[in-house]
Automatic annotation (TrEMBL):
Keywords: Coiled coil, Membrane, Transmembrane, Transmembrane helix. This is Capsule polysaccharide export protein KpsE/RkpR. Residues 132-159 form a coiled coil. Residues 255-329 form the Tyrosine-protein kinase G-rich domain. GO terms for molecular function: protein tyrosine kinase activity. It comes from Tunturiibacter gelidiferens. The chain crosses the membrane at residues 306-326. One of its GO terms (cellular component) is plasma membrane. It comes from the Bacteria.
């Protein structure tokens, strides 16, 4: 029985092997591989293929066994001695091999099964193997692109101190709003204290120092140099990007982050496909189901003994009749008949040459 075709790729490739050169014929044959009947027809064609017959000719040295000079003549003889039939109802394939040697007949029938099984397994395995190699090659390419995209995102984040721009923008805006509110409230308090106590009061100076700190923190968020109360300049470079730089950096960061996410998604999908392909490669070795294994024949399939006895008897009667007629005809010939003289002369010539040869061999032999 033919093996079950899971994905159909192996059956299509096998159909291509049996094709006669017509593209439409290949398409029709490959497209009809749905039922067991069509699969059986395909495997019958495979059993008749030159690949299997060539292996059998080499394995059993059939060119010598059949006394043939050319391989194509040997293959034709093997086809004549092999009968491969398919049951149209259930698709079961039957192989019958006829040979002079019963052991060789059994081994040839078994070899047909082994060669068919090996051909099916080889084609299906190579298909799964090529699929696995393609996915593996694509996976390596995507992995290299993912690593390159991750390095670009890492360099950009390290250079611009960007980790998560959405959260950083929200935190920066909230912090700036809070600082600005505190600064407005502090300036209002400072203005009222100056009106009450004057510029030299301790509370006024404390409020001025507090406002200076708030102003410096607010300016630091915008990556600006801050002037102190005495006019000195402080380096207030903020460890995070300035608020005014966030829109420009956000576009670049979003593009790099999106590229990384795309490569990560593709890599995850290909990883799953790769594992599936490896499993399919390990499982895609179908075997032909054998219902009855080849047996050693107990009796000859032909010719029948009755036919041999009958033919032998008829031939014996004919030859005996010819001999008796020839002997009677020879006896009735005259002694001086030219035909009798010619036959006697030929007989004496042959007998004389045979005797001379024996004498020469006897003289040349060592004594």
């Amino acid at each position: 029985m033919p093996p079950e075709q899971g994905g159909g790729n192996g059956a299509a490739m096998l159909a291509a092997l049996v094709g006669k050169g017509s593209a439409s014929g290949l398409a029709g044959l490959a497209g009809s591989l749905i039922g067991a009947k069509n699969n059986s027809a395909l495997f019958v064609a495979l059993l008749h293929s030159g690949t299997i017959s060539g292996h059998l000719i080499d394995k059993f040295d059939l060119q010598r066994v059949y006394h043939k000079r050319y391989r194509d003549s040997t293959a034709k003889q093997l086809v004549r001695l092999t009968k491969i039939t398919e049951d149209p109802k259930n698709g079961v394939i039957t192989i019958v091999v006829t040979d002079e040697d019963p052991n060789r007949a059994k081994e040839l029938a078994q070899a047909y099964l082994d060669e068919l099984n090996g051909l099916v397994a080889r084609v299906n395995t190579s298909s799964a193997h090529r699929e696995r190699e393609f996915i593996e090659q694509r996976l390596n390419t995507v992995q290299a692109e993912l690593q390159r995209a991750q390095l670009e995102l890492s360099d950009f984040s390290s250079k611009n101190t960007t980790i998560d721009l959405k959260e950083q923008t929200k935190a920066t805006v909230d912090a700036g709003a809070k600082l600005e509110g505190q600064l407005i409230a502090g300036e209002s308090e400072l203005s009222s204290l100056r009106q009450i106590y004057g510029d030299q009061n301790v509370r006024v100076r404390a409020a001025e120092a507090r406002d200076a700190i708030l102003r410096r923190e607010l300016q630091r968020a915008n990556e600006q140099s801050v002037q102190g109360t005495e006019g000195q300049s402080f380096d207030v470079t903020h460890p995070y990007p300035a608020l005014r730089e966030l829109p420009r950096l956000g576009v670049q960061w979003a593009n790099l982050y999106r590229t990384v996410r795309i490569h990560e998604t593709v890599f995850d999908l290909l990883s799953e496909e790769y594992e599936t392909a490896r499993i399919d490669e390990a499982k895609s070795i179908p075997t032909v189901g054998v219902i009855d294994f080849p047996n050693l024949p107990e009796r000859k399939s032909g010719p029948h003994r009755f036919l041999i006895v009958l033919v032998s008897t008829v031939l014996s009667i004919i030859l005996t009749a010819i001999y008796l007629l020839a002997r009677r005809f020879w006896g009735e010939l005259d002694a001086f008949d030219p035909r009798r003289e010619l036959a006697t002369h030929i007989k004496s010539t042959i007998t004389g040459k045979w005797s001379s040869k024996k004498d020469i061999d006897h003289l040349s032999a060592p004594h």
